[in-house]
Design brief:
Elements (H helix, E strand, L loop, with lengths): L2 H11 L6 E8 L25 H7 L10 E3 L11 E5 L2 E5 L8 E7 L5 E8 L21 E5 L2 E8 L3 E7 L10 E5 L3 E8 L5 E7 L1 H4 L4 E7 L11 E5 L13 E5 L2 E8 L6 E7 L7 E6 L10 E7 L5 E8 L5 E10 L5 E3 L1 E2 L5 E2 L3 E3 L6 E7 L25 E2 L7 E4 L15 E5 L5 E10 L6 E7 L3 E8 L4 E8 L5 E3 L4 E2 L7 E8 L3 E6 L7 E8 L9 E7 L41 E10 L4
Antiparallel strand pairs: 1-26, 2-25, 3-4, 4-5, 5-6, 7-8, 8-9, 9-10, 11-12, 12-13, 13-14, 15-16, 16-17, 17-18, 19-20, 20-21, 21-22, 23-24, 27-28, 28-40, 29-39, 30-36, 30-40, 31-32, 31-39, 32-33, 33-34, 33-35, 36-37, 37-38
Length: about 600
């Protein structure tokens, strides 16, 4: 397949349906200026309208919009880490870091900063392509910056091992340009541009000590106005080592307001840090600082790193993350105001200019009708492509999956390989973020193979993992439940259960409760779900939350392409031969170890 064809398949297959679930509308009639396109955020194509907000609570695991003019935090209760956001016309747009996951750089859209829709991704693959052909946990896309300038959307993002890159688009849904290196190098992170009033352009960034040996400082460069190159070696404009108590100063966002240059930047670390603001009359400094948001006496640890946005009506708001371990970095929305002393404060002002997070607050005032939405989680696999919630652990191969081989079902190919024994090393795990503190995820699957060692199922994946599903044990298909501790091999948590005669499809479920405590269950005999094994805690991955996913794999090979153990005869799900799905339903070359079919994937509240 040509490179153009490959990219087109990935664009279509991983971005063809809307990235939200739509659950009714609140407010006045939609003004002409906010009339949505067919896949716009006010009526997202592919979303399912199910009445007013009361039904939303029954259908979705988390709803930020309280339906009475207020919202509750987090407004994005999933791992949308390192958010940056802007407003263009009536819409707000948000991007987030994605690290090793593909597609990367999701783009979300909202009309009120509370109800969000995923509208696309800026990256269909990670570069260098071969390097990211296998999971590179903790690498890839770190904290991005999103801006709108000269009629285009710009995203500057860092890869701590390769440098700072830039992509652009005239439509935030895409297509986006091929990533262009702005500054190659190691340890360059968290870039943010500024186009000044006089036409000059600048870029500020932070440093990753793990790659460069330094951190806790911010470096400013002159940048070409077209954003393609930095014009100098840079100058440290803020050194956290010179500021009492500052550690891990990073994540800068550069703004200009009323003749002041502002750098909003977090410090103190991901879990327990705070948000500072720095200001100067010169972009080069010197900068004075103030802590403008910290945990205070709230349960919101480490409220920091995010974006300042202003509504069309002139209200100021601040989006930031909170690290919640296995749930990842969830996104909160804080009211922001400018004090009479000229400094901003986010959340509730303690009187000194230091804010604390709000848990519930009046929504931003915006014109028009807003619908209760949340980024999509469920998928019935009836569309032309996978939902925008899905991600792979590495650059995707279209031969891994198909939605056309079996109508209204997802087919995942059981390909053999040298790393199939450890799902942390397997690139073809199809995953998504944990969508709430408590929820259930249910699917129904069958495994069609004659190859011993082939397996597939439902996984909760991080630095440790556990999965439930089906495995071919040589002469039969069995239900298994397995777990792997950190840096350890898999082990059974139950005795494998042979499927009853005539039973091929097995519903599987994971229930997740506060503390990310998970419980697997299965319905083997059609009499209802039975818990399997003991409850277990989900664990975060490297810089990301735990992943909720589906997978299929063949037996482990000996590294030369041969099957190390077990039966080697392969059959496809229809019993007619071997098939590798190319994402469009076409038969690809090569042999596989069978196919796993997933009928649907449904996510809902814990009570459902």
């Amino acid at each position: 397949m040509s490179e153009h064809g490959r990219r087109q398949v990935l664009r279509t297959g991983l971005g063809a349906v809307a990235g939200s679930t739509v659950l009714g509308a609140i407010g006045a009639a939609t003004p002409a200026s906010a009339t949505p396109r067919p896949d716009g955020p006010l009526g997202a194509g592919g979303g399912v309208t199910r009445g007013e907000r009361e039904s939303a609570r029954a259908d979705l695991p988390w709803v930020a919009d309280l339906g009475d003019g207020r919202y509750q935090n987090p407004v994005l209760n999933a791992d949308w880490s390192d958010p940056d956001a802007i407003r263009v016309g009536p819409y707000f747009y948000l991007v987030a870091s994605t690290f090793n996951r593909v597609p990367g750089l999701p783009v979300l859209r909202s009309v009120d900063l509370v109800n969000w829709t995923v509208i696309g991704h800026a990256l269909t693959e990670l570069l260098p392509r071969e390097h990211f052909g296998e999971p590179r946990h903790g690498e890839g896309v770190w904290a991005p910056a999103l801006r709108h300038h000269d009629g285009k959307f710009w995203i500057f993002y860092p890869d701590p091992d390769f440098g700072i890159f830039m992509v652009t688009a005239t439509d935030p849904r895409g297509p986006w340009s091929t990533p262009r290196p702005v500054k190659p190098g190691k340890g360059l992170i968290d870039p943010c541009p500024l186009w000044d009033d006089d036409g000059r352009a600048y870029l500020v960034h932070a440093w990753a000590k793990s790659r460069s040996g330094i951190n806790n400082r911010l470096t400013l460069h002159r940048m070409s106005p077209d954003g393609t190159a930095l014009l100098d070696e840079g100058r440290i404009v803020i050194n956290g080592d010179d500021l009492p108590g500052y550690t891990t100063l990073e994540g800068p966002k550069l703004y200009k307001r009323d003749g002041w240059y502002w750098i909003f930047a977090p410090a103190g670390g991901v879990t327990n840090g705070w948000q500072s603001a720095f200001r100067s009359r010169s972009v080069w400094g010197p900068y004075e600082d103030r802590v403008v948001l910290a945990q205070g006496d709230t349960p919101v640890n480490g409220p920091h790193q995010g974006a300042w946005v202003t509504t069309e009506g002139g209200e100021d708001w601040f989006l930031h993350f909170q690290d919640r371990g296995a749930y990842g970095r969830v996104v909160h929305l804080q009211p922001m105001r400018w004090r009479t002393d000229g400094w901003p404060v986010m959340g509730t002002d303690d009187g000194s200019g230091r804010g604390a997070p709000v848990l519930v607050h009046t929504k931003p005032r915006v014109d028009g009708r807003t619908e209760v939405t949340a980024p999509a989680t469920s998928d019935d696999f009836t569309g032309s492509g996978l939902g925008k919630q899905w991600m792979w652990q590495a650059n995707a191969d279209p031969a891994w999956w198909s939605l056309r081989r079996f109508p209204s079902r997802l087919a995942l190919v059981c390909g053999p390989g040298p790393v199939t024994h450890d799902l942390r090393l397997l690139p073809n795990v199809l995953g998504q973020r944990l969508p709430a503190e408590s929820f259930t995820a249910t699917t129904s699957m069958k495994l069609s193979t004659a190859t011993a060692g082939s397996r597939a199922g439902l996984v909760v994946l991080g630095e440790t993992y556990a999965w439930v599903g089906l495995r071919h044990d040589g002469d039969r298909i069995v239900l298994v439940c397995r777990t792997a501790a950190k840096d350890a091999a898999e082990a059974d948590t139950i005795t494998p259960v042979p499927l009853p005669r005539g039973r091929s499809a097995v519903p599987l479920r994971v229930s997740v409760r506060p503390g990310a405590v998970c419980q697997f269950a299965a319905d083997v005999d059609g009499r209802g779900f039975t818990p399997l094994g003991a409850p277990f805690p989900a664990m975060a991955g490297k810089w990301i939350g735990a992943t909720l996913g589906l997978f299929a794999t063949g037996p482990a090979t000996d590294g030369t392409g041969g099957v190390a153990t077990g039966h080697t005869g392969d059959v496809a799900a229809d019993g007619t031969g071997d098939v590798a799905a190319d994402g469009t339903g076409d038969v690809a070359a090569g042999r596989t170890a069978g196919v796993a079919e997933f009928d649907w994937f449904r996510v809902g509240p814990i009570s459902s």
